[in-house]
Amino acid sequence: MNTVRTSAAALAAACLITSAAAIVATAPTVSAQYKLDESSVVRISLADLKKRMAEGRVVVVDVRDAASYAQGHIPGSWLIPVETTAQRTAELKKLGKMVVTYCS
Predict the structure, then answer these.
(1) Which long-range contacts (CB under 8 A, 24 or more apart) does 20-23 make?
(2) Average pLDDT score over residue span 13-38
(3) How close are the terminal C-alpha atoms of the chain, in Å?
(4) Is the model's pLDDT at 5 over the cut of 60?
């Protein structure tokens, strides 16, 4: 049986909501390649994130590397390392949900 450990730090870090189009610009190394419309970036509280997750209105994306994800992540989050977000943006857009990105 696989057990997922979720740290309080990982949950607290999950407070950035972006549109799927802006997800490719969540890290400094990537943002130099893409223009980020900062008006599309909204911070939400942890309580609001939990509510949206329970309602299935968001996709939570962990943009760290696989080793960090394996050590602990938000249950149900997708692992999409920041260097691969550009290739996955279309897939996320098709879901028609808000995209929440986090790292720690």
Answers:
(1) 20/89, 20/92, 20/93, 20/95, 20/99, 21/89, 21/93, 23/61, 23/85, 23/89, 23/92, 23/99, 23/101
(2) 43
(3) 26
(4) no
Tell me what pLDDT residue 43 has.
Answer: 83
Question: Pairing between strand 16-18 and 58-62?
Answer: unpaired
What does pLDDT average to over the chain? Answer: 73
**Tokens representing residue 5 in the block:** 């450990």
Dihedral of CA atoms 36, 40, 45, 48 in degrees, nearest 10, equals -130
- Cα 78 from Cα 67, distance rounded (Å): 14
- Residue range 74-89, pLDDT digits in tens: 999 999 999 999 899 9
Q: Domains of the chain by range and CATH?
A: 8-102 (3.40.250)
Report whether 24 contacts 81 (CB < 8 A).
no
